[in-house]
Amino acid sequence: MSKRAVMAAVVLAAGIALAGCTSGSPEPSSSPSAGGSTPTRPTPTATAPTPSVTATPAPTPTPTSPASWTAESAYAACVAFHRDKTAADGLDPDSASWNPYSPDVVRQNGSEWLVDLIGTVEDDDGNVYDGIFSCTVGGTPAAPSVSESAGM
After folding, report:
1. R_g of the chain computed on alpha carbons
2. Do the domain assignments include residue 78?
3. Is-contact 67 130, C-beta < 8 A?
4. 10 Å Cβ neighbour count for 114?
5. Pairing state of beta strands 36-40 and 29-33?
6. Considering the domain boundaries, does residue 53 fall inside one?
7. CA dist., res. 118 & res. 82, Å (int)
8. d(CA 76, CA 131)
9. How far apart are CA 82 and CA 133, in angstroms?
10. How many domains does the chain fold into?
């Protein structure tokens, strides 16, 4: 093979290689000129390689929900609900004496807490009875939803 043939093959290979460097550009576009339209090809431009930076993922913060009930706060909400209900019924809110909080009387059911107040209740005549008052506590401490329930 002569030098001329080798040179032509190299030039042809370079032309084919450059034709493939359109980096996914669309087909040649036409631009109007005085003599009609002639297709033009975008000119490849050299860009400096962008360094690949692998960022260390930052730890994802644990989402915080608005203040939610604890067993103790649900118990206190039930005691407050009973006092308000007793007063609204025209009775003495201090007529009931509930045992202190115990985890045995508070249980969670989904997003609600079921609370049983256990203690003594005094009637208008001074008679003292063992008493249980049950309530369901839901919502949030900022927007509580407390209601009387059937209990255990």
Report:
1. 41
2. yes
3. no
4. 19
5. antiparallel
6. no
7. 12
8. 17
9. 8
10. 1
pTM: 0.55
Whether 107 and 70 have beta carbons less than 8 Å apart is answered as no
Place of tokens 């049983």: 116
Answer for the pair 96, 131: CB distance below 8 angstroms, yes or no: yes
Q: Establish if 98 belongs to a structural domain.
A: yes
Show Cβ contacts of residue 56 under 8 Å, excluding neighbours closer than 6 positions.
Answer: none
pLDDT (tens digit, 9 = 90+) per residue, 40-71? 666 656 666 666 655 565 555 444 445 799 99
**Which CA distances in Å does 38 have to 28, 54, 55, 129?**
10, 45, 47, 104
Tell me if 133 sits within 8 A of 117, measured CB to CB.
yes
Residues near 1 by beta carbon (within 8 Å), at least 6 away in sequence: none
The pLDDT of residue 108 is 95
Tokens of 2: 């002569």
Domain contains 79? yes
Q: Which residues contact 128 (CB under 8 A, 6 or more apart)?
A: 120, 121, 122
Tokens (6 digits) for 40: 């033009």
Domain of 144, in residue numbers: 71-148
Q: Which residue is associated with the tokens 């079921």? A: 114
Question: Six-digit token pair at 91?
Answer: 């009775």
